[in-house]
Structure formats: C-alpha cells, structure tokens
Write a structure and sequence with these properties.
The protein is mostly loops. Among the domains are: 142 residues, no CATH class; 56 residues, no CATH class. 13% of the residues lie in helices and 4% in strands. It is built from 5 helices and 6 strands. The strands form 3 sheets. The chain has a two-stranded antiparallel sheet with strand order 1-2. Strands 3-6 form a two-stranded antiparallel ribbon. A two-stranded antiparallel ribbon has the order 4-5. It is rod-shaped, with a radius of gyration of 66 Å.
Length: 580
Amino acid sequence: MQTDIHLSRVFTAVSLCLILVLFSSQRKDVSAVDCAGKPYGFPGCPTENETPTTCGNRVVDAGEECDEGDFNGLGLHCNKKCKFPYCGDGEVTPGKGEECEPESEKYYAEDGKTVEHRFAAPQCGKYCKPPEIDSQGREVGGCTWVFSSEECSAKQSASTSASGFPFPPPAQQQQSEATSAVNSAPAFEPPTPPPTPVSPTRSARCGNRVVDEDEQCDDGNQVNTDLCTAACERARCGDGIAQRPAGEDCDDGNQNAFDDCPNDCRLAVCGDAVREGKEQCDDGNAIDRDDCPNTCQVAYCGNAIREGTEECDDGNQNAFDDCPNDCRLAVCGDGVREGKEQCDDSNVISNDDCPNTCQVPECGNTVREGKEQCDDGNQKDNDGCSNSCTLPSCGNGHKEASEECDDGNQVDNDLCSNSCRNPMCGNGVMEGAEECDDGNRSNKDSCTSTCRLPVCGNEIREGAEQCDHGPDNSDTRSDACRSTCKSPSCGDKVKDKDEECDGSEQCSPDCKALKAAAPRVRGPLIGGIFLITVGVLSGLGYFFRKSLTSLLKPSKKGGKGDRSIDDIPLDEIEMPWHQW
C-alpha cells in the first residue's frame, strides 16, 4: 500500500514536470520556487549529476569525492558514483558490514539546495534498519536486517503517514505550490494516474461477531493481524497487513517479488530454488562453492570473504599479490600477468623471455631458464659461463673463458684478432695490428722486432737503414744522415769532411779534385785532315794558274799580240774549267 502511494506521488510529480517543460517558454519564474522541504527533483529545483561524466578516469574531478577508475564500486573506498560509501547511500557495501539499504527519500534541506535523506519508519516484521543521527549530525549504525515482533494495529498504521516516513513531507503543499507555479499556463489535462489502493472501510456492524452482507468475516475484535482484519475482511497476501495466523511472514501490499517481502508474503528462503526477495540467486543446493553461495548473494570479490567460486579473497585492490582482483589464483600461461607472476606470455615455450614459471629468468641461481645458455651460479665472468649466463663467444665484447682479449668487433688487424687472441710478433703470422711478421725478432731486416715496417725518420735504426737521426736527417748538410736513412757517401752531391769534392765536373769518381791541363790535339786525325786540305788547295791553285796563263796568251785567230786580263770575260776567269 505504501509503495502504491509512492508510485502515485511519483506519477504526479512526473506529470507536473511535463507541464513545466511544455510551457516553460511562457513562465520564466519557475526557478524561483522555494525548494526547502520539497522532494528531490521538484520542478524548478536544482538537480545534481548523480554520476559525473568524469567518474572512472582515476582523477578526482569537480563533483567527485573519490575516483579509483575500474575499481569504483568494488572496494570499500569509492562507489560507482565516485562518492564515499556510507550507510543509506542506496548501495549495499558488504565490506563495510552492510546487509541492506533502508528505504529512503531524498528532499531539499532548508537552504533549498542541499539534498538530504528521509528514512522510512520502522515496519512490522523484517525491515532494514536505517542509521541513527548522533549529536553532531553524523549517521551511525544501521543498514542491518531487523525483525520487529510488535503488532501493527490499525491505529499504528493510521498514525504512520501515507508515505511511510516518520515526518511526512508536505505533499499537499508541494502540489498546491506546483499548481500555483503554472496557474497562468493554458489548460492542460494530465493523464489520469492509476487508482491508489484505499484501506477498507469498517462497516458499522463490523465487530458484532455476525458476518453481515458487506462483510467477509467478523471475529468481534479490531486486531488487523489475525485471520479477520479490523475491517471484517479475510486476511489475504497483498492487503498490506502481515497476518501471521494466515501464515504470512510479511505483507507490503505491492507486487514486487524482489523486495523485502516477496509476492507470497513469506520471507525469502535461500536454497528453495526460487529467487525472491533480496536474493541475488538461488540454485536450490547446499553447495557453497558454486556460482550461487549459500547466502543466495552473488559472490562479491573484494569483501575479504571467500565465497562462491572464488579461489581467494584478500579484500584489497592489489592485483599482484597472492590473490588477484578477480579472486582467482594466478594461472601461468593464460596471457594475463597477475598475482605474483613477473610475466605471462601465454605459451608453453620455456626458453623464451618468459619461462613456464612466469618468473623472469635470474642469472646466477644455478637454474638454466629462459634464454640462458648456461647458469653456473657464480659471479666469475671468465669461466665457462659468463655473468650474463651466456657461453663464451669471441666477438661479444666480454673477455671470458680462455680468451686473451675480446674487443667485440670483426676487425682482424686491430689489437685483438678475430680469434680473440693477442697478436704475437715473431710467430710468422701477421695478425692484429702487425704490419709484418717474418718469424724472427731481428731488427736489421725488412721487418722490425716489433713486427712493424721500418720507418725512416723515427730515430730508430731498423731494417736496412744505415742511420736514422730523425729530424736531424739532411740531404744538404755535411756529414749528416741522409733523408733516406743512408750514411754520407761520395756521389750524394754533398761534400763531406773526408771528400775534396762531390758532384762537380772537376771532381773524380772518388771525390778527388782534378788538376788543370792543356788541351791535347788528337795527332793522326788532325794531321790527316790538314794534309788533305793542303793538297786540295794546292791542286786548285795549280789548275787556276794554268788556266789563267792560257787565257793571257795571244789569240791565234785575232793575231793581235798578247791579251790583257781585262780582256778575259769574267765568267771565264771564275770558271776556267769550262774550257778544260
């Protein structure tokens, strides 16, 4: 009956809200409604965001008291609305010892903004006890099931308000104020609400122990909790009166099978295979470790009580201790790292980064695991197993086992060969940084005792060098070691102290100065040439004279005495042989 009255009030409030929405454009003064004492959500009164949009981001934002992300509502510290849990907040928190949540109604305090709760008055039979308010205004106790053995007489029922609250809210005043707030709006006919159950009216003859025409019974008393009510009606489940002689444990007068009083007016019995009342499940068995424990409440992981199919429940939010947050023991290989697992790669390969123990390999524990090639359990890096649990390998940058060196590269002509051996000069093998290796330690051949090629100018006489004075080597200074690391010698065009000369034309091959001498005529050749020349000239003179004499004789043809040389043509004088 009380619930039906609540539904009627809610329906009325919803209708008024529709009126205000439809005609809000014509009435702008609804916000000025005095909200003090009115039920939460009264038209024109402020409303709060029940669950902030930011709830769940693990950051306490405006309007939030706490925020534990995905753990909101799972523990004892923060509920799903990002508020601190408390008795009377509308959510049962088993971890805080709560068994139930009492019926309550939210209303506006005297400031018209703060929202407070009114808890329902105690009822007959089993009910959820609301918290008490101490002298400082704090809620203490409550949120536990209480069974009242007091009889609910008609007088007691009448003394309780229609809403069931110890101090009824002024419902009529609320309705009149809401009506006045919109009295200037156009006529609007709200839907007709469902009829409110009315308590049976006692007839004038009820109680005379005679069943009259309008009576179902008459036991002559005014006791409402026996088989015949004070209104002379037979006891029935759903009349709002718990008649224990009729076998009723409760009667809340509603059709809600999942409140404190199911529809058969008998308190829920866990284990009868019928889910009713506040039961969350009922599988009809006595097995406490299945999906429905023997409390008929679904197991709640995190309440420190192992129940249902939970394998553990330590009551905390640490997913990496002995009991993860799903209250299931960690299973290595399921791909979920939880409990005390250090890794979980969901495979059965034991020699990868995550072995089948789901523990990260630890080099030095004498157990070869993961990608370890060995594990000798010691910290010696130069034995057969390195401190990184790898076998010796030339070129890994670690000198280990029998290696003489390891520079971590593949360069064979540096200080450490590719066989991780130090170069050995004189073994006939050119290795490491050696420039040569002739198999000896002699410093006087083409390869020095340090397996380096001789270098002229390093002040070290080596190889075929005759001398090496470094920066003092000179090709111009007397008696100096030459730039080719050769000793001073005749023919190097530098006059040294034991030489008379070197490189000049007046210098002998043994660097001795030559003496000056007259030029010598080469007799036979020159004499021959001279005699030939004289003979030729004498012959020419002879013929010239003979020719000239003949020209000067008197001509037989002309008969004119001797000829003068002037009478001889010039061409005949020049070429007398023309006439020969």
